[in-house]
Amino acid sequence: MYHRIAAFLLGAWILGSLFMMFVATQNFQTVDRVLASAPPQAEQMIQTLGPARARDLLRYLAGEENQLFFVSWETAQLIVGVALAGVLFFGAHSRWLAGLAACLVVLTAFQHFQVTREMIALSQSIDVQGAPPGQFWRLHAVYGGIEVLKLALALVSAGLLLPQWGARSRTGVDVAAVKYAR
């Protein structure tokens, strides 16, 4: 049973990570789609602001949404990761898989408390003060690298967990013989 819970948590983590990768890229691409095919009411607002300023405003909005999504997802990953490590260590008695889950939690905690916080602070200083964006993009690359590493570790964990889950589900059940009265 614990292997099934662990497989569910790990699957949720992997699916959530893939979904967040999709959302992050689509938020910024939506800006260009909206500007390219704006309805007449929005077209007037775009012309009032000017196309470049409208694009900047919409990209700022997309960035703010991404920040909210990433902070929320990182919090969810911390909760799921701690639960996964606990289930694997205490329930499934797999120290190796629990260690991989703990690595995922440590990487997520580093992202959440170091990289994301600094990226948010830098993005705000770029928006307000016009600070150079070089450091932000370096942190963005670090963040992306950690995401790829976490996804790879989660997939390796799934690859190690699923054979154990399948082996446990195929074990036979002993059924006592029953004598029926005639």
What does the model show?
The protein has helices at 2-36, 40-49, 51-91, 95-129, 134-169. It has 182 residues and is mainly α. It has one domain. Helix 3 packs antiparallel against helix 4 (95-129) and helix 4 (95-129) packs antiparallel against helix 5. The longest helix has 41 residues, at 51-91. The model has no long low-confidence stretch (mean pLDDT 86).
Q: Give the overall pLDDT as a whole number.
A: 86
Shape: elongated
DSSP helical segment count: 5
Radius of gyration: 24 Å
> H/E series, N to C?
HHHHH
Main pleated sheet: none
N-end to C-end Cα span: 39 Å
Number of strands: 0
Approximately how much beta-strand content do the residues carry? under 5%
Number of domains: 1
- Poorly predicted tracts of residues: none
What structural class do the secondary elements suggest?
Answer: mainly alpha
Roughly how much helix do the residues carry, as a percent range?
over 70%
